[in-house]
Amino acid sequence: MKKHLSICWLLVFYTGLLQASIAPVRLTCENLNNPLVVDVLKPRLSWVNISQDSERGQFQTAWEIKVASTKDKLLNGTVDLWNSGKVISDESLNIPYGGSPLISRQDCWWQVRVWDRKGKISGWSEPAFWSMGLLRSEDWKAQWIGAPWQGVDPLS
User: Fold this and answer.
1) Cβ neighbourhood burial of 121 (10 Å; 0-12, 13-18, 19+)
2) Cβ–Cβ contacts within 10 Å for residue 102, how many?
3) pLDDT tens digit string along 82-124?
């Protein structure tokens, strides 16, 4: 039993050595938290990196973003909109979306992971969300409502 516990502690310790000392949190799209309506073709994505309590002078050296059309696809690894791959960069603000063209009313779920100054990779962030608004006037399918005396005949 002691040997089994020692092996478990060793695995936990070793896994901790492999993970980054920073983690991405507070994901935003167009500077908003999970916005319901985004009307730009290449939304800008941002996050904040937090470091472990005992870690000083830590910084991001690379990032990877993945975007999917549903939360299930994102969590299952079926990334159907964008997988940036590893990008060497310390930037974490206003990263332009670089995937498949987005369409009106489309849902987008995304996550990011980062590499720290020692080249260790973080886990994936919690999923975040944005939804596309109407991008073209032709996407508007409703009719305006008005009173007959305002020049709008509701019966026509």
Assistant:
1) middle
2) 21
3) 999 999 999 999 999 999 999 999 999 999 999 999 999 999 9
Q: Can you give the residue ranges of every domain in the chain? A: 20-135
Fold of 20-135: Immunoglobulin-like (2.60.40)
Which two three-digit tokens encode residue 52? 């472990």
Is residue 101 within 8 Å of residue 135, measured between CB atoms?
no
Beta strands, E only, 17-135: 22-29, 44-51, 60-68, 82-83, 87-88, 95-96, 107-116, 128-131
H/E run at residue 28: strand 22-29
Angle at 104 between CA 110 and CA 127, to 5 degrees: 10
0.90 exceeded by the pTM? no
